[in-house]
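Student: Send me a single protein entry containing the residue sequence and its fold in token form, directly below this note:

Tutor:
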Amino acid sequence: MVNDMRHDKGFTLIELLVVMAIIATLITIAMPRYFSSLETSKETTLRQSLSVMREALDHYYGDTGHYPDSLEQLVDQRYLRAAPLDPITERRDLWQVLPPPDGVAGGVGDIKSGATGRARDGSLYAEW
């Protein structure tokens, strides 16, 4: 009688396969949204970093009457705490430095990202 009343503990192979299928379905729904939000956050961070550096350039020009010779000069004189990380290239040394307008002293009049490729809206990162 003991053999007839045997209680098996654990899951059957079918139960495990059903659970794995449900988990796989949930992952296929969630992963594209995750990667989409990750790209959006990188683009937002890049736009904010460009805005902060351009504002620091404007403050430097307003204080001194000329633009800095390099980004490091902005850091050395505490207009920036550190050169920001480009979230697309994940590097600090690929910023594209543009000269100031003609007749204005200095070496850095504007800054752009050194990232190649297009943003989600179709614009080029290098044109921001």
